[in-house]
Queue: 2 jobs
Job 1
Amino acid sequence: MKIGFFDIEGWEEDVVRKEFPNDDLFFTKEKLHEFDMSKNNDFDAVSVFVSSEVSEKVINRFPSLKFITTRSTGFDHVDLNVCKEKKSLLDLFLDMEIIRSRSLLSDSF
């Protein structure tokens, strides 16, 4: 799977590489909505932080996109209406939130 990590700090890259050793990973400090997508827009998944706007315009610029996740507790920077229209994005987005919540809970006990 080709995964793009946006608005990411250097220390996060090492952690992510260990978790996804067999995937094609791309890292940038750029925010998703500021990224020059003409260079690289064939991601299967993107991971963003709160400063990246995930709008309809941005989502539509990634023709292969199947999965969006945010490295934050909030997701008001993600256009959920567009995700709802593209059911796989919404389902996977919400599933990831559930998985992350379960993971955080199990790590806490």
Note: The two ends are 32 Å apart (CA to CA).
Job 2
Amino acid sequence: MKALKIGYHRLNKFKEAGLVFKKKKYGPPGSKRYNLMISITDLLNWLESHQAMFKALPIERYALGIEPGWLSDKRKKEFDIEMRKCE
């Protein structure tokens, strides 16, 4: 999840909290290789209802294709908190 700048362990916590993944097979026929796929709408809906589980500040604007209002508001709040820490 490069767009969210999170690692594999955090992704597993998201999965445990109900984020839906789909397996997409690749490679030669009979191969057991697969990637985990997440639709953007499912991801945005899940992130909106689980805002305490991730930080919005590291996510670049429009990294997910669209910029919902709640995400930009969360990013602004986190930026204000970080600025207060520096004072």
Note: The helical segments are 8-16, 40-49, 69-86.
